[in-house]
Amino acid sequence: EPSVHNISYLPPTLRPYAHLARLDKPIGTFLLLHPCLWSTALATTTVPLDTHAYALPDLQLCALFGIGSFVMRGAGCTINDMWDSQYDKNVERTKSRPLASGDLSYPQAW
Fold first, then answer.
1. CA 20 to 30 Å from 94, out of 32, 47, 48, 85?
2. pTM (2 decimals)?
């Protein structure tokens, strides 16, 4: 599978985990994060704080949603690969994934 982002800066021992969590393809994380940030922005008050300033969305909540999106996307990719590794071995596009290729074992992925 072609990578969108280069993860070669990671130590070689961490690269299979990065591939398992699809850190090189961040669109899934962004798709999870977008509705969270959008709803946080909509929930922000529109009452002016003074004559020209409005409140910003809660940055701590946005950071929490960002971390949650990152973690949940990685967990989803991991469990999907655990369930599908027997099929992934036979598919050209997915046979290089860490579990299908043998770079990681099930206990390591868990």
1. 32
2. 0.77
